[in-house]
Amino acid sequence: TDVLLESGGGLVQTGGSLRLTCTVSGLRSDYINSAYCMGWFRQFPGQELEEVAHLDTDKSTFYDDSVKGRFSISKDSASKTLFLQMNSLNPDDTAKYYCAAHLVCGRLQEASFWGQGIQVTVSS
Description:
Elements: E1 3-7, E2 10-13, E3 18-25, H1 29-35, E4 37-43, E5 49-55, E6 61-63, E7 71-76, E8 81-86, E9 95-102, E10 113-114, E11 118-123
Parallel strand pairs: 2-11
Antiparallel strand pairs: 1-3, 3-8, 4-5, 4-9, 5-6, 7-8, 9-10, 9-11
C-alpha cells in the first residue's frame, strides 16, 4: 500500500514556526515521488478543504494568497519527503493539514493519495 505519512504538527504561539513533513512510502513511492504533483491542504472546522501550496514536478510552485511570503514548500527527493515550512503563524492558520499527491496539479483536490491529516494549532 502506498501511503503519505505526515508529521510535524502541534501547538505553537502566534509568530512561531512549524515544519510539516510528508513522506511517501510503498511499492510505488519512487514513481509517486518523481512523477506526481504534491501539495498541502488544510481544513478548518466545518469547512471544505482548501489548497495551501503545491510543488509540481517541474519545480513550479503555487501558494494560496493567505500564506504567500510566510509558507514555503519544498521536497527532498532522496528521502521522498515533502516539506511545508510555516513561519509567522497566526491563529487563522489553525487547521488540520493534509498532504496530497496527484499526477496533475490542477486536479490535486481529486488526489490519488492523501495523508491522514495533522493538527496545527496556533495560540494567540
